């Protein structure tokens, strides 16, 4: 293993460095080029730098590593102590990341001096809460430029009954605090005597965290996220703390704690109402999930949520709601329609096993249904709906979309059941995407879908698809997986991609005057295409019917790939072979010599003089003087008669 590598000015302190060789090796290196350093040696227990070793341009440093051993166990960093004088050794440091240093007990970074450190991340490190808190207190006291603090996956040995205070008065620029996936604290306090603003305060999945206390002087002007385990976390904060939030993500217990009924949220744009999470411990891993909620609890939650949103005057700018529980969607629609700017709903309720019918008219323009267990979904009568997204509906086998006159986009992801989908009375639908799907029973569009331009279905097995000719006419982009056959008129299609590698019956493409790209991974038993004039790229396996057609085109293109000069004949060449015709005459090939005959006296359309001995005939069939067309191509690439491209055709065949 190399002891030192530089890649984009990165220095790796890997396992070729030992406790004894670290400093001598560093003294021999040009450290001025290093902007990032990763300390990941399995031999270094105490990382200590003398003050005369300086990384003058280092801005980012990581301590720690994880590696998988042959027996399946995980090796982590052996670091127990870090001792660096940032002011001397890392004068430009901006960000440090300490991870998988479970034995870490002592960190000294400042030696009484301040640092320019602005971002700190700690993950799965420190052997005790005392070691962690002492390190953080030192950072708070010596880093006036600190803006971002991230603490994740902490789990100290012994009790997690630890009270941690974040003193904002010592860090005047901190505006982003995240604590998640930890079992290290029972209480966290955001402390400040003077008025302070945070752009982001994020707590999620912290087992054992019972109280988050935010001092009254602290206000959050961006995101407040509190998602707890099993409703055990309480939020102790006054309404002035969260009344200026633009985004609130909260679990059910915190929703009860927040006194929404007496607050006007002038700035709130997005509200997420989440289920509490749970953790199930095993010997090897932690599995997180949503806690099951009884019918009685769900009814209480519904009532509480509807009560919270009952006064629309308190949410003048609320546009987006994400909800993980919704017993009666019609009750919510009545409530949502009172909100003056609300238009986006994301429903993720995995507890509903009954058919979902979103049929009551509403003002929603963007609807997402995800993570549900509905056997069927019906969306209808939504005059303002523009985008519909269905995601991870494991049990859904029937999807109906109808009477949505302004619907523009339908997207589906990860539908596992063999599913039937129909779209009716959606005249403005332009984009349909269905990704990550194993089996489709059928897809149908009715005569109203005349504006469909993008059709993307990422299926593996063939299915029944019904698209009327009126809908096919405006398609521009088609992507399909497994098919039995495809036959139709595609006057506006620019790109057609068939990704299934299985053979299929036939591929019949008519009226393809705008087709530019064709990708066919399978082998149709029969293939025809009536217009290849605009095709510039084809990808297909060798020796297929598609390959044969475009291999011939490639050969023809090579033959006509330059401005071809023709001798002008006074009489037809009876001995020559007529190769093709052009506007006003015929082309002859006699050996390597190319000749042309004009039925009438030829005149150059540029200079208007007669052409007597030689001429250039463009792809479009118009003839001109060579000097005239070459002068024209300096400023224009079009034929002066018909405005079609006068340049040589560019075509690529990717055969494999």
Report the sheet-strand fraction: 35-45%
H/I helix tally: 10
Largest sheet: 23 strands, parallel
Shape type: extended
Q: Helix coverage percent of residues? A: 10-25%
The low-confidence runs, each spanning 5 or more residues with pLDDT under 50, are 1-7, 278-291
Radius of gyration: 35 Å
Helix/strand-derived class?
mainly beta
Q: What would a concise description of this structure say?
A:
Keywords: Metal-binding, Zinc, Zinc-finger. The chain is 13% helix and 36% strand. The protein has 656 residues and is mainly β.
Mind sketching the topology for me?
Elements: E1 10-13, H1 22-27, E2 36-39, E3 46-48, E4 60-63, E5 66-68, E6 74-76, E7 81-83, H2 86-89, E8 95-99, E9 106-108, E10 119-123, H3 129-142, E11 148-152, E12 163-167, E13 176-180, E14 187-191, E15 196-204, E16 211-214, E17 218-227, E18 234-236, H4 239-242, E19 247-251, H5 252-257, E20 270-274, E21 277-281, E22 286-290, H6 295-308, E23 320-323, H7 329-336, E24 344-347, E25 356-358, E26 366-370, E27 376-380, E28 387-391, E29 398-402, E30 409-413, E31 419-424, E32 431-437, E33 440-445, E34 454-459, E35 464-466, H8 469-472, E36 477-480, E37 486-489, E38 495-498, E39 504-510, E40 517-520, E41 524-529, E42 537-540, H9 545-559, E43 565-569, E44 577-582, E45 585-590, E46 593-598, E47 614-617, E48 623-624, H10 626-635, E49 652-655
Parallel strand pairs: 1-2, 2-4, 3-7, 4-8, 7-9, 8-10, 10-11, 11-13, 12-14, 13-15, 14-16, 15-17, 16-18, 17-19, 19-20, 20-23, 23-24, 24-26, 25-27, 26-28, 27-29, 28-30, 29-31, 30-32, 31-33, 32-34, 33-35, 34-36, 36-38, 37-39, 38-40, 39-41, 40-42, 42-49, 43-46
Antiparallel strand pairs: 5-6, 21-22, 43-47, 44-45, 45-46, 47-48
